[in-house]
């Protein structure tokens, strides 16, 4: 009986991970980044920082204990604003990234870093 429960939990966990990656992939694509950037550890935080209007190194600060609490809140508030949502919407990032699902399923448009519209010809954030 225990192996059946363990197998079931593994299948459910893998399903959640796949759904999370699909939602994050769609959000990154909507912001003009490559989808694969959401699955690379550490690098994805650098991109989220940039998506929120901060330099890439800002995302690296999320690796520092205690400091990461402030940094993650700041990045997620900025990313929420980048998609036209309020700062309070960023709390959904703490609940297993539910914000990714909401942004992906509602086809939210990326406005620009921290909610400031970007010039149409500005592609400096994209990697060649």
Give an account of the 3D structure.
The protein has five helices and no strands. The protein is mainly alpha-helical and 128 residues long. The chain has one domain. α1 (2-30) crosses α5. The longest helix has 29 residues, at 2-30. The N and C termini lie far apart (52 Å).
Summarize the structure.
This protein has 128 residues and is mainly α.
Topology of this protein?
Elements: H1 2-30, H2 43-51, H3 56-60, H4 67-82, H5 98-105
Helix pairs in contact: 1-5
Q: Could you describe the largest sheet, including whether it forms a barrel? A: none
Count up the domains. 1
From the helix content, strand content and strand pairing, which structural class follows?
Answer: mainly alpha
Shape summary: globular
Question: Topology as H/E string?
Answer: HHHHH
Q: Mean of residue pLDDT?
A: 83
Q: Which percent range describes the beta-strand content? A: under 5%
What share of residues is helical? 40-55%
Number of helices: 5
Features:
mainly alpha, about 50% helix, about 0% strand, 5 helices, globular, single chain, about 130 residues
């Amino acid at each position: 009986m225990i192996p059946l429960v363990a197998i079931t939990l593994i299948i459910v966990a893998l399903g959640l991970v796949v759904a999370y990656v699909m939602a994050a992939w769609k959000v990154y694509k909507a912001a003009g980044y490559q989808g694969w950037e959401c699955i690379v550890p550490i690098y994805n935080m650098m991109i989220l920082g940039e998506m929120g209007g901060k330099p890439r190194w800002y995302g690296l600060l999320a690796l520092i204990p205690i400091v990461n609490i402030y940094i993650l809140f700041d990045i997620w508030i900025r990313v929420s604003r980048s998609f036209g949502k309020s700062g309070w919407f960023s709390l959904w990032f703490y609940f297993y990234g539910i914000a990714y699902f909401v942004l992906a399923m509602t086809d939210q448009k990326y406005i620009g870093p921290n909610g400031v519209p970007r010039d149409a010809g500005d592609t400096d954030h994209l990697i060649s």
